[in-house]
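Dear colleagues,

As part of the handover before I leave the project, I'm documenting each prediction I ran so the next person doesn't have to rerun anything. This entry is a single chain, and its sequence is reproduced below.
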Amino acid sequence: MADNDDIPFNRDFPLKPGVVDEPRPGVRRVLCNNPSPFTFTGTVSYIVGKGNVAIIDPGPDDEAHAKALLDAVRGETVTHILVTHTHRDHSPNTARIKAATGAPVYAEGPHRASRPRFESEKHNPESGADRDFRPDIAVKNGDVIEGQGWALEAVATPGHTANHLAFAWAERKINFVGDHVMGWSTSIVAPPDGSMIDYMASLARLEAREEDLYFSGHGPEIPEGPRYVRFLTRHRQAREASILHRLAKGEADIPTMVRAIYIGIDPRLTNAAGYSVLAHLEDLVARGIVATDGDPVIGGTYRMAS
């Protein structure tokens, strides 16, 4: 949600849908034509290597994008398909690419929530989850996926989703970070799909690594990745402080907190902002700093713990 001045966002991303560019040797990217307030100019799919290649994040259920990806690798062999996470703007096109190439699919696992759903929570059909996705090969943190001329280490980065992975090309100091880190905006962390506790831990995990150039699921590449991650961490800490500042004045529900904290937000993002506040509140309740009656849910009322 692009509502803050403290992060050095870069919204300069002139890549056009279906066009292939090569921002670094051995890294090509193709933009899908699915722009929105949540996807920026669209989902970016990556092609790693030359000759025998991997495709990272085939994108949404979009035939034109699948064709553009397959055109980009014409005369080459796709040996691996890698998926960072199971949101509908990243994984559904996997089936088309697999059918055309026969390449095995690597991912952490099927979609799952970060925690069990509370009784009082209604299932949200618009969560954007791809519940049909199944990898051929389940990958865990530290696993290395090797191809011709490249090796990618899986880095578990839960938070945006429970099954989120980044893929680090350590030799090149490049990390394909999916939606965990984006250069154009902060990531959405919406419980029960996402978890702020996990998200913050995953930021720390990335910051401790050597890779300094990040390629994201949306928007331009991010130079000085660990430094950028520190901005994101500080931003979330400031967001938490804003919530506590509001609750110090008295108990409040989430819409009240959103109005107090997200000044001038795009109205299309208000719902997402509410879930982001909920993610912080879940963390604060777990730490005993904030209290609520019953489970921490989107419709709850919150107060400082005595």
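The longest strand covers residues 150-156. The radius of gyration is 19 Å.

All the best with the project,
I.
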